[in-house]
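To close the chapter, one final illustration. This time we ask the reader to focus less on the individual chains and more on the assembly as a whole: which components sit near each other, and how the overall shape emerges from the parts.
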Amino acid sequence: MIMAKQTVVQIDNQATEILTRNNLSITGGRKRILHLFLEQAGALAHGDIEKKVGEKFDRVTIYRTLQTFVDKGIIHTIPTADNSIRYALCKDECSGGHHHDHHVHFVCTVCHITYCLDDVVTPALKFPKGYTSSHVEVVAEGVCRNCKPQH
Amino acid sequence: MIMAKQTVVQIDNQATEILTRNNLSITGGRKRILHLFLEQAGALAHGDIEKKVGEKFDRVTIYRTLQTFVDKGIIHTIPTADNSIRYALCKDECSGGHHHDHHVHFVCTVCHITYCLDDVVTPALKFPKGYTSSHVEVVAEGVCRNCKPQH
DNA sequence: GTAACTGCAAAATATTTGCATCCTT
DNA sequence: AAGGATGCAAATATTTTGCAGTTAC
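The assembled structure is written out below.
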């Protein structure tokens, strides 16, 4: 379900709805952070969020808010090799801390935006005898649509 | 190429050979850390290494040694969602910081060991129009052979 | 002997915790 | 009013940097 560009009001309603659905108090900080995720496609690292919200919120509040969102299944973490966890909005099938993200993540080496490629499904893998896998995480690296060289 | 259990001398020779091949001085610290990787199959986080080498080496030396090994292509990093980078030995095709690990990593949720499944090849993926991928990282989570429930 | 490596001290950065206060419901 | 959320201070933990002493070659 790809969303067309939304108005600020629509995003705000959406943020409120997400918080309500998860039994969370509707506060300025939580809405502000949810807005960031709803406004754009990319995943965000803690540092990104800190820069974007400016001085308005305490660093500790951001840590706690992100943790709360992960626990509730609102966002999920994306592993990266550079020791900076990124967070992205979960789709509806995530709930209560049980994430079921079977899509592929894509990190652009040019603009450094991390995308959730919801349409690219994690492939089935055949594991060696004795290994049982419950979850497979795929992170691709390359050049995204926007950074593609023109011709 | 699965190695049978090796003697300490064999591991030591192997460590020396790796350092020599990469134009690195052969020092106690580097050999000690290489031994850890050569002695077992799993990947190691910085903290694991620190515990295993005991008080014998400075924490800073471990940081620098790991960085050196990554730069030389001796080890590679494995992304994890819990913000703790793990390192594992590279196969021969890695060199000079250009890693070509097309195998899958497996994190056991019971023993927390991270394995490189060299025989499980990263599957080809079809990306949306405009996206060009140069590298795909796959990390599977589940129960490993040793932790598998008996019956 | 010289360049590279290491340890120590310290700075910079990142993350967690406790508690008092404020805000949402 | 009550419980949860936030800000602030401070404790911890992690990573980086500079420099002087030591070691490998």
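The mean pLDDT of chain B is 87. The domain at 8-142 of chain B is CATH 1.10.10.10 (Arc Repressor Mutant, subunit A). With these observations in hand, you are ready for the problems at the end of the chapter.
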